[in-house]
Specification:
Layout: H1 10-23, H2 30-44, H3 46-51, H4 58-67, H5 78-86, H6 93-115, H7 121-134, H8 137-141, H9 149-162, H10 164-184, H11 187-209, H12 211-215, H13 223-245, H14 254-264, H15 267-275, H16 294-299, H17 304-307, H18 310-328, H19 330-345, H20 358-368, H21 373-378, H22 388-415, H23 419-443, H24 447-454, H25 456-472
Helix pairs in contact: 2-6, 2-7, 4-5, 4-20, 6-9, 6-10, 9-10, 9-11, 10-13, 11-13, 11-23, 14-18, 14-23, 19-23, 22-23, 22-25, 23-24, 23-25
């Protein structure tokens, strides 16, 4: 033969077609669906694998102390702590990281399968790889912390509300269980679940009252599945608290976190200046030595918070002062709440307090995780080898661009009356707004609160792009 390359041998051609055919499998194909989940799991663990150990946050120590040590921590979710115990954290944190990666991969795959069922496996994995490189996704999936479940909650509720028929009973059942656990894994996620349930109810009522929109067959959300997720999460929280305390309650730390946020906003000082000593607050004696920030109040040993008895010792007075401040300064509260929510919406840098932490955690880990200490100390994180500055700059840039693209695509889909795309993009945007409001108002702005969810913006944008092409193929 002349004028070109020699053809591949027949056996090599067959292997090439077989390999390329696997990557062209569509997500609607069960084999493509299973392959997508299986391939995503190691991708999502990329940060932890590179670190040589799952990512550790300061709160990880409290969850270990509660779950493996059996000591109730009023400020930590008992559900996630018990998850650590029964999922094998005492043997290896990798069990936890793999399970979190599996849950995230399943939610991502089912979302992609619902939005764009003809999406090829190779292109979907390329989207997953892009998110791993350009967002904080792998840092939360591989972290021993419940933050990764925030995005799972959003995706699962969307699928259960708008796509349950195409999912089928088995997938819907798995998603409902995972979403219920996710909601119970952190108080902010239980509130986010409640917010999304209210949003879905409002959409359903609006569509029922609007005959014109109903006639155009806008998708009506199924409320029963979302309600069951919310109730399941609520029941898990009650059961977890009862397991440790033999008492039924949702939270005993909420007032303390709201109080800390109000302290940071200057509202507590205004209340003390206006009412002390007549109010009889114990904090009147400390008004000249209060920390300036919420974190300074809650987590520094020199704070009056510790001298007054920590969460349990200050719960009653914190609740009283929160109520008094809301009653006395409603406009000031509203202004501060809106400012905190807006600030939280745009605070999503990656790497918030992911740093060497052995000076705080090593002693407790050595007690409950002795076999893992060698790997723990050898991790890049504990050796101070991770520089989040370039990582965070890239992630923030991608997040900002993705938010802009999300808004543009949402407006465009509304104008084109593309109902499925409008609902999906709008639901993701609403979840981002709701999460920012819940976390910003109740706890004050922190990068990790929004960073754990911001990757949904580029994910939604990228999934929405092939949706139109898939439809045009018919």
């Amino acid at each position: 033969m002349t004028g070109g390359e020699a053809p591949l041998p027949v056996r090599m051609q067959w292997r090439h077609r077989r390999v390329s055919g696997r990557w062209k499998l569509e997500l609607s194909n069960p084999l493509g669906e299973v392959a997508a989940v299986a391939c995503l799991v190691p991708l999502l663990l990329a940060a932890a694998i590179w670190n040589r150990f799952p990512i550790i946050y300061y709160d990880t120590g409290a969850y270990v102390f509660e779950g493996l040590g059996g000591h109730f921590m009023v400020e930590r979710s008992p559900v996630y702590s018990l998850f650590l115990r029964y999922a094998g954290a005492g043997t290896s944190f990798w069990f936890i990281a793999v399970l979190q990666s599996l849950a995230t991969a399943f939610a991502m795959t089912e979302t992609a399968r619902a939005i764009s069922p003809r999406l090829p496996l190779g292109l979907f994995l390329l989207i997953g790889a892009a998110l791993v490189v350009a967002t904080g996704l792998p840092w939360y999936v591989g972290q021993i912390e419940p933050d990764c479940f925030a995005a799972i909650t959003v995706l699962a509720l969307y699928l259960l509300a708008f796509r349950s028929r195409s999912l089928g009973r088995a997938r819907s059942g798995i998603l409902a269980v995972v979403a219920g656990f996710a909601a119970a894994s952190h108080p902010s996620l239980l509130l986010l679940t409640g917010f999304l349930l209210i949003l879905l109810t409002a959409i359903r009522v609006f569509l029922l009252l609007s005959k014109r929109l109903t006639a155009n067959s806008w998708p009506r959300p199924r409320l029963m599945e979302a309600l069951l997720v919310c109730l399941f999460g609520f029941a898990l929280v009650l059961a977890g608290n009862y397991h440790f305390t033999r008492q039924l309650f949702v939270s005993r730390a909420g007032a303390s976190f709201v109080f800390a946020r109000m302290l940071q906003d200057g509202i507590v000082m205004r209340l003390l200046d206006d009412t002390c000593p007549q109010s009889g607050y114990r904090l009147c004696a400390w008004r000249d030595s209060l920390p300036a920030t919420a974190d300074g109040w809650l987590w520094t040993s020199q704070s009056p918070f510790f001298a007054l008895g920590h969460f349990q010792g200050t719960d009653a007075e914190s609740g009283r002062m929160v109520r008094d401040a809301i009653r006395r300064y409603p406009l000031m509260q509203l202004k501060a709440a809106l400012a905190d929510a807006a600030a939280q919406f745009f605070h999503f840098g990656t790497g918030d307090q992911i740093e060497p932490q052995q000076w705080v955690l090593a002693r407790g880990f050595a007690r409950y995780l002795p076999a893992q200490m060698g790997a723990y100390f050898a991790a890049r994180q504990q050796r101070g080898e991770i520089d989040f500055r370039p990582i965070s700059r890239l992630d923030v840039a991608i997040g900002c661009l993705s938010l802009a693209a999300l808004l543009v695509m949402l407006v465009w889909s509304i104008r084109l009356r593309n109902r499925d795309k409008t609902v999906f993009l709008g639901f993701v945007l609403a979840a981002l707004i709701g999460n920012a409001a819940i976390c910003g108002i109740l706890s004050g702005p922190h990068d990790r609160y929004q960073s754990r969810l911001i990757w949904l913006a580029p994910f939604a944008v990228l999934l929405a792009l092939p949706l139109a092409r898939a439809r045009n193929d018919h």
